[in-house]
Write a structure and sequence with these properties.
The protein has 12 helices and 16 strands. It has 465 residues and is of the alpha/beta class. The chain has 4 domains: 120 residues, Beta Barrel (OB fold (Dihydrolipoamide Acetyltransferase, E2P)); 155 residues, Succinyl-CoA synthetase domains (Rossmann fold), CATH 3.40.50; 82 residues; 43 residues, no CATH class. A 5-stranded mixed barrel has the order 3-4-5-7-6. It is rod-shaped.
Amino acid sequence: MSTIWDHDPETGEIIEQGPSNAGEYSVSEISNALKRTLEDRFGHVRVRGEISGFRGPHASGHCYFAIKDETAKLDAVIWRGSFGRLRSKMQEGLEVIATGKITSYPMKSNYQIVIENIEPAGVGALMALLEERKKKLAAEGLFDTARKKPIPYLPKLIGVVTSPTGAVIRDILHRLNDRFPRHVLVWPVRVQGETCAAEVAAAIAGFNAMERKPDVIIVARGGGSLEDLWGFNEEAVVRAVAASVIPVISAVGHETDTTLIDHAADLRAPTPSAAAEKAVPVRTDLVAEVASYHARLQGGLRRSMDERKTRLRSAARALPRPDEILALVRQRFDSASGRLAQALKANTREHGARLNRIAPRLSLMPMRTLITNERRSLDLSGRRAAQALSRLVAFQRQRFDGVAKLADSLSYKSVLRRGFAVVRTEKGKPVHQASDIRPGEVLRLEFADGEVTVREDSPKQRRLL
């Protein structure tokens, strides 16, 4: 039997109340009894508070921290197996809702919560975390417009990072097939959950490490809540997109959904189908545009040729006719020939006069010698005159031949000798285009060696008359 002692509140003295019949407990017994009481009373609870003292997993894989509010703090532990299954990423100062059971730790005589699941305490907490992360990454320049790369106009190979079993990849392939079929390489990833961010970042890095890289990467996922899309707000994904040398199109969620990957991507599409539309042009529109350019090119060439023909005809009309060129040369040749005969007669008369002037002074000379000398002089003058005439005739003939060759080269007959022909109507009017010929019309074809007459029966058949 034990004695019960009490405390007098007025005097402060210890008063013996006498023996008691209550049983005695060992420390272990009372600790285990308290543990069972806590676990029976709080077998499954949801506790809301702020994460405090979180330093990541212990070497054993377990996590030890606390959850607190304005006036109290509750120790918390997450076993290694439960931590690997958590969907939300834990962070110091984040307000969360922890689900688990209350128990005690007899070695320290305190109580704690063993957490089985943890989630952010509403959208407000996630939005605050998202805004803080966005400011941090923007300050590093990962969202700058200047670093964004242009999307290729018509990629040969398109890389797609998405779930291989969802409706997203089917929508992308269907839209590409409708617009402009291209080769598609899918890198399968989880688009939700704890491993989503790591898999998406690894996929983007994997595409960039390939020997034959895609021309563009589409990162796609369907719509969902902020928690469902949280993997695309992780720093690892944003940094992988910013470091990609391949242009990236972000197509996460629906049009109203916005994630941090949208700011880092080179182009944001409101939906996965819209991403496919932005990746390739419409083939029919491209074919029509090429046809339009071809027609414009043909029209330009036709106008250029018509303009050159007009300019050539104008230049040809300004050139003198071959007869006119030869007439001037002939006239000059005839004039020189006429003056040559008169010059020879004048030269003979001049030499005769000189002979008459010097004859009296040569009277002492034998007449035979005088006559011989004069004859020699006349012969020499004659030979010189003949040589001069021959050289003049040769020079004039050479010039005449040159002018004749020029006239021949300017004549259309030189073109005929190279195998061409001139087409004229029956009345002699030149024909420039096949479309100017009427069925049944009689045509004259002039060749280098003569003319033939044909009749136009059809655009594909000509008949000789």
